[in-house]
Amino acid sequence: MNKLKNIVRHLLFYLTFAFIVLSELSCSNSTSNKIQINFWTMGAEAEHVQKLTKQFEKLNPNIVVKVQAIPWTAAHEKLITAYASETTPDIVQMGNTWIPEFVALNSLDSLDSFVDQSKVVHSKNYFPGIWRTNIIHNKLYGIPWYVDTRVLFYRSDILKRVGYPDPPKNWNELYDVSKKIKKLYGSEQKYSLFIPTNEWAPFIIFGMQAGADLLKDDNSLGDFSEDKFQIAFNYLMKFYKEKFAPVDMTEVSNVYQAFASGFFAMYITGPWNVAEFKNRLPKSLQNDWMTAPLPAYDNQKYPGLSLAGGSSLSMFKSCKHKEEAWKLIEFLSEKSNQVEFYHLSTDLPSVIDAWQDSTLKNDKYLKAFYEQLQNVIPTPKVPEWEQIVSAKVQQYAEYGAREKVSPTAALKMLDHDVDKILEKRRWILNKERKSN
Amino acid sequence: MIDSNKFKISAAYFFLAPAMITIFIFFLLPVIAALLMSFTDFDIYSLGNLSFAQFVGFRNYIDIFNDPLFWTSLKNTLYFVIVGGPLSIAVSLAAALLINSKLVRFKSFFRLVYFIPVVTTLVAVSVLWRFIYHPRFGILNYFLGFIGIHRIDWLGNPKWAMPAIILMAIWKNFGYNMIIFIAGLQNIPEDLYEAASLEGASAWNQFKNITLPMLAPTTLFVGIITMIGYFQLFAEPYIMTQGGPLNSTLSIVLYMYQEGFRWWNMGYSAALAFILFFIILVVSLIQLKFQKESYI
Fold first, then answer.
1. Which of A135, A358, A430, B159 has the fewest CB atoms in 10 Å of its CB?
2. Mutate which of B44, B137, B269 to disrupt the A interface (most A C-beta within 10 Å)?
3. Does B243 reside within a domain?
4. Closest CA to A177 of A154, A147, A148, A210
5. CA angle (A277, A282, A283) in 5-degree steps
C-alpha cells in the first residue's frame, strides 16, 4: 500500500511540474505582444518570400510573419482539410482557379473595403484579365501576386529552316509550319508540336479562342460538344492523327532534352519554363529558341487569347488580425517588392509597373508574356472547374488522341460526365431560385 | 464463487476499457459515420453549408454501378489481385523453401536481404522503379535488349503498365509472406520427410504430399492476408502512374481517394469504400470455405 502511495505522490509531483513548465511556456508566448500572421505559400515561393517577409518584420516590429510551405501537389487537399478542421491560416497564396471553390465554402473574406482605402492596390495597376479571375459575384477575393499565362515556345532555327522566320500568327500557319517540320524529318521519329495529354490548358485555350463558352446555363451544364469547342478539339486532334504531335507522353520524359534534340520544335507552356530553358538547354542552343504569343483563331486579332493564371493573395474569414494581414498583402504588392520577388523567384510580377524594371524589359523571352498578358481571360468560375479539367477534359483528350473513340464521341462523353459533376450545382441554383 | 467471477469479469472490462474505448472512438465510430455518409451527397458545398447535404438513399451506390470508371477500376484491381496475388504467394513459398533448405548457407543473411524491400519506404521504392522502367534509359529495357526484346514502354503503355506494377509489388511484398512460410515450414515434423525418403519418395512427391498439405493453414492465412492487401492497391499507382495511362492502373482505392480527397465527393467516396469492403468480405468467405472443404 505504501508503495502505491509513493508512486502516486511521484506521479502527482511530475504532473504538476510538467503543468507549470507548459503554462510558463505558453505564457511567455502570449506576453511577447507580437501579432503573428500565418501565411501559407506553395512550392518554391515559400522559400523566396521569406526574404521579403523579413524586411516586412523590420518595418513592422510588432508583427511576426510565420511562413508555412506546402507542396503544390498536395496544396489543394491541404487547404480543404485545413478548412474542414478549422485550422486555416490568415493569408494564403491561392491558385486563381481555386478561388471560386473557396468562395463557395464561404471561407474567404472579400477585400473590396481594403482596396477602396488603399494607396498601393488599385485595379488599374493590374492586367485586366488577371484581376477579373479574383472577382466572384462582383466581390473581390484575392489580390494578384504573380501572373502566369501560356505562350508558344519554339525552336527558331527549325522554324527558319522550313520558311518561318517569324512564329505562326494564326491556326492555319501553326498547322502549316507543323506540316513542314514533319516533312523536314521524313520518317524520323520527331515531331512538330508537343501537346501533352495530361495538360488541359491547350485544349481549353484553343476552345476559348474559337469562342466556346465551355459551360452553359449559368455554368450548370457542360457545353463541350457544341460547334465551337468541337472545331478547336478536332483541330488539335489533327496534330495527333497526322503525327505532328507525339501521343505517348512517356516518350518525352525530359522536356528539356527533347526540346534540345529537336524531338519537338514547339511547345505551349508557361513562364516557369523560361528560367528552366535558360538553365537546362545547352549553351549552343541559347540563340535558337524563342517565345511568342499564341496564334489567333481564323481572322482574329493577333495574339490569340490565353489563360489568365497565376496566384493571388487571399485572406481567410477566420483571420484574427485583418489590418495587419492586409498590411502584408499591400507590402507584397508594392512595385519594388514585386520586382524583388521576380529576382528571387522569377515569378512574373502582377503589377504592370514592375514590368518597366530593366531586367524584365531587357529579357527577350519575357516580351511575349507581356504581350500575351494583355489578352488573357479567366476560365468559368465554378468550384468544380478543377475537377472538370484535370479529371475529365484530360481523360477525354487522351481518349481522342489515342483514337480510343472518335472526337465527336469523346466530347459527348465529356459533356455527359461534366453534367454529372455539375448536378449538385444545378440543385443548389434551383434551390436558391425558389427561395428568392 | 459467483461474486469472484463477477469481479473477474468486471476487472477484465476495466483492463480492456482503454483499448475498447480507443477502438470505438477511432475505428467503430468513423466506420458508422462513413456508412451514414455513403447515403448522403456530402461534398464541397456541404462542407461550407450543411444544408446543402441531403440523404439520397442508395443513389451513390446506383451511380457507382453506372460509372464506367468504377468498372475500370474494379477490373484493374481484380487483374492485380488475380495475377499478382498467386504469383506473389508462389514467389514467397519458393523463397521460403530455398532459405529453409539444408543446402543453403548464410540463411539469416538471405532472409534479411529478401525482407529488406518490405521495410523500405514504398515512395522511395516506387521512385527507384520508375527509373528501372524508363523506356529509353531504364536498366530493365537495357537488359531485355541483350536477349533481343525490343524496348517496352513499361509505364506509358496501357497494356504493360499493370504488369509493371505487379512485378514491382511482388518484389516489394514477397519477403513478408516468406517469413510466415518459413515459420510454417519449420513446424513440419522432420520425421515425416525421413519416413517418406525411406519409402523412396522423390523430392517433388515429398513437396506435394507433405509440405503442401502441412502448410495448408499457413497458406490460407497468407492467401487471405495477401488478397486483402492486394485489393487495397493504392500507393504504387498513386506514385508511379497516377492511375494512367488511359486509366489502366486506376485501382478502386485510388479512385476512392481521388473522389474523396481531391474532389471532396465524400458521399460517393464512402459508398465506394463500402463496396470494396463487401467485395473483400465475400472473397474472404469463399476462400475460407474452399480451403476448409479441400483440406479438412
1. A358
2. B44
3. yes
4. A154
5. 100
Distance from CA of B263 to the nearest CA of A (A): 6
Grid cell for residue B154: 513499361
Q: Tell whether A10 is covered by a domain.
A: no
Does residue A314 lie within any of the structural domains? Answer: yes
Count Cβ atoms within 10 A of the Cβ of residue A173 and give its class: 0-12 exposed, 13-18 middle, 19 or more buried: middle
What is the pLDDT at residue B106? 87
Beta bridge partners of A20: none
One domain, residues A291 and A390: yes
Phi-psi region of A159 (alpha: psi -120 to 50; beta: other; left: phi over 0): alpha
Please enumerate residues of A whose Cβ is less than 8 A from a Cβ of B. Answer: 76-77, 80-81, 83-84, 101, 104-107, 198, 248-251, 253, 383-384, 386-387, 391, 395, 398-399, 402, 404, 424-425, 428
The shortest C-alpha distance from B51 to chain A (Å) reads 10
Residues A253 and A322 in one domain: no
At A31 the pLDDT is 45
Task: Specify if B11 maps to a domain.
Answer: no
Distance separating alpha carbons of residues A381 and A66, to the nearest angstrom:
31
ipTM: 0.72
CA-nearest of A65, A394, A269, A264 to B258 is A394
CATH number at residue B203: 1.10.3720.10
Residues A82 and A89: their CA atoms lie apart, in Å, by: 8
What is the DSSP code (8-state) at residue A34?
A: P
Residues A38 and A91 in one domain: yes
Determine, yes or no, domain membership for B35. Answer: no
For residues A221 and A352, membership in a common domain is answered with: no
Residues 6+ apart with CB under 8 A from B180: B92, B218, B221, B222
Q: Do A76 and B262 touch (CB under 8 A)?
A: yes
Among chain B residues, the shortest Cα distance to A81 is held by B261
Residues A217 and A357 in one domain: no
Q: pLDDT of A413-434, one tens digit each? A: 999 999 999 999 999 999 888 8
Cell numbers for A304: 490569340
**What residues of chain A score a pLDDT lower than 50?**
27-28, 30-31
- pLDDT number for residue B2: 58
Quote the pLDDT of residue A178.
96
CATH number at residue A362: 3.40.190.10
Per-residue pLDDT at B138: 85
Task: Please choose, from the candidates B249, B228, B81, B285, the residue with its C-alpha nearest in 3D space to the C-alpha of residue B156.
Answer: B249
Query: Do A282 and A183 share a structural domain?
Result: yes
Residue-range definition of the domain harbouring residue B289: 72-295
Domain count, chain A: 2
User: Contact B153/A387, CB-based, under 8 Å?
Assistant: no
Chain B positions in Cβ-Cβ contact with residue A76 (cut-off 8 Å): 262
Nearest to A84 by CA among B264, B51, B55: B264
pLDDT of residue A253: 67
Q: Are A131 and A236 found together in one domain?
A: no
pLDDT of residue A356: 93
- A207 is written with which cell numbers? 476552345
- Rounded average pLDDT per 10-residue block, chain B, 296 residues: 74 92 95 94 85 90 92 95 94 92 85 92 88 85 86 85 94 93 92 89 88 90 90 90 86 93 89 94 86 59
Tell whether A103 and A217 lie within a shared domain: no
Whether A346 maps to a domain, the answer reads yes
* CA-closest candidate to residue A321, choices A26, A27, A66, A36: A36
Confidence at residue B263, expressed as pLDDT on a 0 to 100 scale: 84
pLDDT in tens, A365-415: 999 999 999 999 999 999 899 889 988 999 899 999 999 899 999 999 999
Which residue in B48, B136, B258 is closest to A106 by CB distance?
Answer: B48
Structural domain that includes position A53: 33-147+310-373
